[in-house]
Amino acid sequence: MRSNIKVIVSDLDGTLLNSNHEITAETKAVFNQLHQNGYLIIIATGRHHLDAKAIIKGLNIPVYLVTSNGARIHAPNNELLFSFDIKSEIIASVFALDIDPTITTVLFKEEVWLTSKTNKKINSFQRDLSYPPEVVDFNSLKDYSAIKLFFTHDSHEVLQDLKNQILEHHSEYFSHAFSLPFCLEFMDKSVDKSVAIETILKKEGFSFENAIAFGDGFNDEKMLDTVAKGLIMQNAPDTLKDKLQHLEVIASNNDNAVATYLAQNIL
């Protein structure tokens, strides 16, 4: 398998980043060595592209960037290869539902993320203010079109209820994923990390059989299950590990697990 692997794919939060949402020096060194050895690097994240770019610039290597769970693809030279937004009227119909006011609602737009309230837990994910939040009254918006619709709440059960409520009326429009137990994300039905990764692989003359991938969330599920070798982080939800129990579980994001695995098994 090792000789067949030419592409390294990694999620960011809970995977490549530690709990301080940083890429460690050890991880940077391993990824620089991978680049020097000719491996293609793909970062696939639920984060917005402006937010993700601010994080991965510290790697100082060319990478393909899949963001908003596949709604955007950027080439290593920053060229936009793919872009897809959810239509305004579809999101407006979601806001017409009776959504629990204790839930923080976020619309990820191109230059700003609009939020129903200040949420310190979500704001802590940002180490750089290149993609700033703006608190708004969603009832006053005229254009609801967005890259991604996002909800967060401390209770996973509350978000489960919301997921069921939205899909009851909108299942034909949305794909969804829990990137973390407290983060529920909705994208257009055509959008998924695995679809975006396949686009890059075809462009570069590779297939999933040439790729290894690392992830920790349900937005990584198809990606992990499609590549030649999918690795699940120890800090991933047990429900994801149970669902993908045929895949290997490695150490946690705070143990430099991605870098350690690649150094020992690929380099």
TrEMBL record:
<dbReference type="Pfam" id="PF08282">
    <property type="entry name" value="Hydrolase_3"/>
</dbReference>
<comment type="similarity">
    <text>Belongs to the HAD-like hydrolase superfamily. Cof family.</text>
</comment>
<keyword id="KW-0378">Hydrolase</keyword>
<dbReference type="InterPro" id="IPR036412">
    <property type="entry name" value="HAD-like_sf"/>
</dbReference>
<dbReference type="InterPro" id="IPR023214">
    <property type="entry name" value="HAD_sf"/>
</dbReference>
<dbReference type="GO" id="GO:0033883">
    <property type="term" value="F:pyridoxal phosphatase activity"/>
</dbReference>
<dbReference type="InterPro" id="IPR000150">
    <property type="entry name" value="Cof"/>
</dbReference>
<protein>
    <submittedName>
        <fullName>Pyridoxal phosphate phosphatase YigL</fullName>
        <ecNumber>3.1.3.23</ecNumber>
        <ecNumber>3.1.3.74</ecNumber>
    </submittedName>
</protein>
<keyword id="KW-0460">Magnesium</keyword>
<dbReference type="InterPro" id="IPR006379">
    <property type="entry name" value="HAD-SF_hydro_IIB"/>
</dbReference>
<keyword id="KW-0479">Metal-binding</keyword>
<dbReference type="GO" id="GO:0050308">
    <property type="term" value="F:sugar-phosphatase activity"/>
</dbReference>
<dbReference type="GO" id="GO:0046872">
    <property type="term" value="F:metal ion binding"/>
</dbReference>
